[in-house]
Amino acid sequence: MPIDDEDFESESIGDDRKLQLFTDRHEFTRRFAFYLNEDPPPEQILYFFGDGGNGKSLLLKHLEFHCSKRFAPDVWQQWRALPESQAAEVANFVRYAAAKTYKPIPAVRHDFGLIPLKEDKPQDRFYGLLMLRRNLAAETKKYKFKFPNYDFACFWYLLNKGESQATLNQLFPDDVAEVVVPIVETFADFPVVAQAVAVLKGIDKFGGIKRAMKLIQNRLGVSDEKAEEIRRLDIDTELTDCLAKLFAGDLNAAMAGKNKPDRLVMLFDTHEKMWDEKRNSQGATFWYQDEWFRRLLRALDYKLGIVVAVAGRECPVTQLRWPNASKFPIPADYIDAQLVWHLSPDDARDYLHKVKIDKTDLADAAIKYASVNPDDPWENLQVHPFYLGLCADAVLAERKRGMELLSSDFARIPKLENKTAELTDRLLSYVDREVRSAVHSLSACRAFDEDLYVKLGVGCHFQASSANFEILTGFSFVWKSQKQGDNWYRIHDLLRRLDADRDDPKTRKAHEILERHYREVGNVAEAIFHANRLDWQRGVEEWKEVFDEALRKSRYKECEALLEVRDELGIKSDYWLGRVSRSEGDYYAQFARYVEAKQEYLEAVAACNSALLIAPDDINALNNKGNALTSLGELQAKLSEFEVAKQYYFEAIAALNSALLIAPDFIMALKNKGIALQSLGYLQAKVGEFEAAKHSYFMAIAACNSALLIAPDDICALNNKGNALTSLGYLQAKLSEFEVAKQSYFEAIAACNSALLIAPDYINALKNKGIVLTNLGYLQAKLSEFEAAKQSYFEAIAACNSALLIAPDYINALNNKGNALRSLGYLQAKLSEFEAAKQSYFEAIAAYNSALHIAPDYVFPLKNKGIALRSLGDLQAKLSEFEAAKQSYFEAIAAYNSALLIAPDYISALKNKGIALRSLGDLQEKLSERQEALKNWQKALEMFDRSLAIAPNRDRIRNRRDSLQQFLDNLGEHTVSS
């Protein structure tokens, strides 16, 4: 049971020298054979764990190519009866068995350590599973496995999300693409075979997606019930979380059918790569990294003959703590954990024999040299496979030069920590100078092919030839890396680390060449990696600058590429580690990935605390700690965890106060204290603590004033003061303190103007001036000062236009211009200036569209565009322009859907989508379209419920929800249950 409730032919391995030389691991081969041949099959996950370099990856390849065999029962019974002490005999029989004695078993291997490339992202919960799907289809072609529910869910995701640059043929197996492509082309009105999936969202016109998916559902054989269940799932959270279970369910069904293999092998390599830099994370964030993989393993039905083997560095029970995972735990009873240790002397001798190193004294000396415990008795030696491979490489390299090494050459045994360095130096002293230079140069690469090798040859002044490339890629420390295909390679991490630690001049030169190369081809992330290797701080500073700008401009693909490189950046100070972690947190917060955002902010705080342990008076660390705590507070406030948020704000203010006790004139701390106090005040106002909120705003303004006493022309302090005064004015207006609210707004405008007198092109001040003028206009409209309100709105629009003259692509200015135009339209509609109001709404939508043209995934203009469209729909409905009103509501809902695809838990988008659905339902009821109205009212309830599930203390949303439920209850026979 699940923990959850043409002829097959092996791939040729003739060119894989390392696999041919595979040695030992007899007990693991024997155990694997039991999984493939015992009836009933063991219902466990086979997990090989151990230190890096111990041969786990090679073991999986050995099991895949040499051992995926099922023997006739009478043959197997003879061998299974042999005791464990005769494991070597069993292993050798399995490896070398005659073809007529067994059936080959399909085996697929998924390597989490492959470098992500476009849609080939082995660790990704969506694209990683698609990689596994394609590979499984290729290995089980004979059996024609079908994955109807999983494939349907993937198409539903892609046609809604529309983000992939790959074609359908690249993402899906041929048999699936052949079924689906003609259907999609019917609705797309253009050939899609060579088109990226990203263009397919165009078929949404006139309900194209819905009709296309119905045909796809029928062709794939998905039931109506299952299709509706999948469509009801939230695209970016619930659906992506369920994909692993859908995949496993389809695979279970295939293995329960008639046309199936007796066993199916699934191998997963380098499991530790699911974490990388997140290794030290705690709790839910730690387990989140491989959550989709655990979900897959839980849902597979092992009694059907599915055999899973995993390789990783840590024990899944005691170190990864799978049985204790907060979600989707895997009980210890389902895990068969096997420690992959070093080689025995006999097995090491067997390996040397295979590479034709047979001289006894030389072989014994090499074995002792490669042992991690060379002082122990011979029978207790533990021979490190990586070191043994280097020893063999050294002997063979010298033999090619016509010389034979002697046992005395291995007589002096270095300390274990120096062994990699000495062995590498010894090996490279025996090879051609050109090859030696190439090794040091290529160790700078995260991956390389022959073209990159040739480019480095030119820049690093070594002779790059195909013959030398063949020699180089034959060394035991050079492994294939399927970055872009079969002809990419990588130098073993131990050697790369050695050259980096030594600051080898050839490696540095290679980093210089590679940095220039990747900048020329436009791969900024890869260029930053090499910059970091040349000067760690320069690389980290550039990473943060480029990442923050990409995030600010919603260039999320660029952010993803930078995050992938981030795992290999060298960050040698807690100060910079804290700053980088905070930027990562900002990225996750923008996508409403709150668990990950919180973890990054906590890591930023932890890094600052580590810096403060070394230097308690480090004011920069205290300042950064305050910023990270403020971000944590803002995150908790979004989730309506108000008391926790308050605590973070108080801690942020305390950290900044500590910095100011040491350096009272530290302007950055004063400005950031003002920001923390303003955020605290906003939260206090939200929970009805109005006097406390006022006090926080006054203190925020005081902090800015203190900064301005030190530096009167500090435009950032002036701008922040304006923001605090704007928030104070908004609260005062809410409390009906209208005159003091006006005064606060006027003072805020004055602060922005002061900044602009000093720096007329300071776009942040122009942007914020637009915001405060919009708020002032709203207050004036409320007080029936309509002409003054109009003037404020016009001035707000002018301020935004001034910012856009300086920076035409400034998306925040475009967004705020849209807000001012929307507010103006609302006022004009109120004054019965209907045509002018329509025009203002259209211009507001145009401003939002301009922002979205620059940053298509920027959620704030998406949400605000939805609000403008809903307001336009309300006006059109009032003017009896019913069809136009419907269209505006539909477009508003589409805008919210787009925002929710990017940030599924974005509460404001959920709430406003609910409001738009309610308005649409009301209009449909008015037009006697009762059934459609009921559907949209029900959807509105769902949006309010989803909002409250994330933020249960949002009283206004609860009031809307309760009001709608009461309305529906009063409909009598058409009551819709909550």
Structure in words:
There is one protein chain. The protein is mainly alpha-helical and 978 residues long. A five-stranded parallel beta sheet has the order 4-5-6-1-7, sandwiched between helices. Strands 2-3 form a two-stranded antiparallel sheet. The longest helix is centred in the N-terminal third of the chain and has 21 residues, at 235-255. The protein is globular and about 100 Å long. 49% of the residues are buried. Mean pLDDT is 86; it is low at 6-15.
> What integer is the average pLDDT?
86
Task: Please tally the helical runs, counting DSSP H or I stretches of 4 or more residues.
Answer: 43
Radius of gyration, rounded? 32 Å
The helix fraction, in percent, is 55-70%
Shape: globular
Spatial strand arrangement across the major sheet: 4-5-6-1-7
**Count of extended strands:** 9
Which residue ranges are poorly predicted, with pLDDT under 50 across at least 5 consecutive positions?
Answer: 6-15
Q: Strand percentage, roughly?
A: under 5%
Terminal-residue CA separation:
36 Å
Q: Largest sheet at a glance?
A: 5 strands, parallel
Structural class: mainly alpha
How would you concisely characterize the structure shown here?
This protein has 43 helices and nine strands. The protein has 978 residues and is mostly helical. The strands form three sheets. The protein has a five-stranded parallel sheet, sandwiched between helices. It has a two-stranded antiparallel ribbon with strand order 2-3. A two-stranded antiparallel ribbon has the order 8-9.
